[in-house]
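Bench notes, afternoon.
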Amino acid sequence: MTAATRAKGDPGSKRPLPGSTVDPAEVARFAAIADEWWDPDGKFRPLHRFNPVRLEWLRNRIAARFGRATGDLRPLAGLRLLDIGCGGGLLAEPMARLGAVVTGIDAAERNVEVARIHAERMGLAIDYRFATAEELVAAGERFDVVLNMEVVEHVADRDAFLDACSALVAPGGLMAIATLNRTAKAWLLAIAGAEYVLGWLPRGTHEWRKFVRPSEIVAALRRNGLSVAAMTGVAYDPLRARWTLAPRDLDVNYMLAATRPPTGPA
């Protein structure tokens, strides 16, 4: 849920920096609560509850793309995976346990510190960096899998951010994106409900105008040589108090997987 580009300049500024996808206010907001990443009852409780459904979906999509068996203990073995906006490592650590060679980057340095310490405690080798997607592109890095989960709705320049993220997907690779749709229903449930009525998230976590319609994501990916291979909504089931896949309901939370052809541009 953090911005995937690093703030440079005045960290207290509320304005995006010229020519950058970073939103300093977003970075500061998540850095302020970084110590709570691994508290399942803390401010990141919604992500802890959301994690099982998105992890299963990610494992299945990645395994299908690379011809792996989901029943294997380490079905992602050897795949180079980048977690953009890794936060405290809630996705990076399970991906490492599934066998992936994981790099996690975040715009908030405190998030990276928290993630690194926790991974060391768990005995996991994860390459955490206080870095930006743009910096990795400039360095010529490419990954088999790029995770872009709950990030795009927090950046200052959505198209530039998606351009950078897409450039990090190697030929034959896959990028997964999760975000919120810009609909009235999303405003009602994700902002009015989750932030103001139920208190699941701190007030101000999201701005409705930054939510992204699926068509906008698809257009940006196509422009960068990626094709959407799968898309699903995710809905909260209050009766079972858990998140479930809702393939026909993209009105609020949704996830998609996009692929680059094996012979596509690097």
